[in-house]
Amino acid sequence: MAAIRTRRGIIQLVGTLALLALVVLTLRERLPAPADVGRALASADHRWLLAAGIAEFVSMAMFARQQRRLLTAFGVTMPRHRALALSYSRSAIAISLPAGSVVSAAYAFREFRAGGADRAAATAVMVLSGVLSLFGLALLYATGALTTALVHLSAAWNTHPAPTLAAAVVLVGLTATALHRLTAVRRRNRDVPAEAASVRPPRMWPWLAALVRPAVEAVTSSRGVAPRHWLLALAAATGNWLTDLACLFAATRAFGIEIGLLELATVYLTVQIVRQIPLTPGGIGVIEISLLAGLAAAGAAESPAAAAVLTYRLLSCWLIIPAGLLAWLVLRRAGRSGRSPGSDLVDRALPDEFGPGEHRPGLGEHGAVIGPGGHVGEQQPARAGPDGELPRLLARQVHAGRTVG
To answer: Is the pTM of this model over 0.85?
Structure first.
């Protein structure tokens, strides 16, 4: 097993170096001189820089709100200052460490347990947080695709109105049929017991089953969660991505880059695909070069583009690491003393999104206490097999955190 992991690490390192070499060779004629980048940084519009910083802070607050809303759906209360500190510390771990997402998930599990969640609820929230983040990103992709389609549809209507009308009618019909079938399936599932509704992993693709099973089990076990919790958590996840995009937009405007929002969103979403491939911790190096290539392809000058990328990554990545370390220390101190310093200030600064009575257990449709089945606690969101990384990490975290859970 150790030899397999070593071989996988070597392959990943070689692939990363090859990709970086390919991108550098592609951009070697367009990489600006450091002096030009320095002059671009010195001429930045400070108002847009401030807007970029605020947007990134709101992005982190949305991530905190997403986790807090999911915990509330399972009857667990987490203060706003603690959720915000956890979002910074989790992001710093994911950015800075090899296999950072796995370690970040294990750390979140321990903090959820320390906050009062049982093992099953902590596992479900950890899994569902990642699922909703992916759904939020997919929603942005769908919005971008729909916007692009509408632009092309308008142009096609001006030139070929009849075929365009026919295609639109077919598309509307297919969409209505899909929605009708989805509603019918949901109506049938309401009468199916939770045990019968659990999805058995396909035997043909065991690797796919190990990857998908944790999300399926978590979603199945949380069928009693009120729809408003799902909607608010998904809204927070989408807001997390949108405000991060707003940070990039403000960074480009700070250096006079006049790229349309649709073009910039295309560059951003393309880079997010690259970001999902764990070539380096937090995509450091890969994302910078990919963003620079995308901005250059969109028509931005080399020096302002490099300055914008540096500013965006400084706010969304490099400054997150020391801030996350500070947040980790605050959480650790809070675990010993009971309440962290400055928590009242943070709680007043971040408005509460919960309605009256939503901090108590029993948040299902009819006020019944809800929560995942015990079997969900045995599933993990990444490498769920017995030799996976996350089960071993979570086992150590649970063993260490039994006295606080």
So the answer is: no
Of the candidates 95, 34, 55, the one whose C-alpha atom is nearest the C-alpha of residue 252 is 55
Expressed as residue numbers, the domain containing 237 is 56-250+311-400
14 within a domain of the structure (yes/no)? no
Any domain includes 259: no
Q: What pLDDT sits at residue 54? A: 97
Residue 70 · residue 254 · CB < 8 Å: no
* Domain contains 393: yes
Any domain includes 367: yes
The candidate with the shortest Cα–Cα distance to 125, out of 67, 77, 165, 178, is 67
| Number of domains the chain is built from | 1
Separation of alpha carbons 174 and 117, rounded Å: 43
Question: Torsion angle of alpha carbons 299, 305, 309, 311, nearest 10°?
Answer: -140
- The dihedral of CA 164, 166, 170, 175: what is its sign? positive
**Helices H, strands E: what count in the chain?**
16, 0
List pLDDT tens digits, range 236-258: 999 999 999 999 999 999 999 99
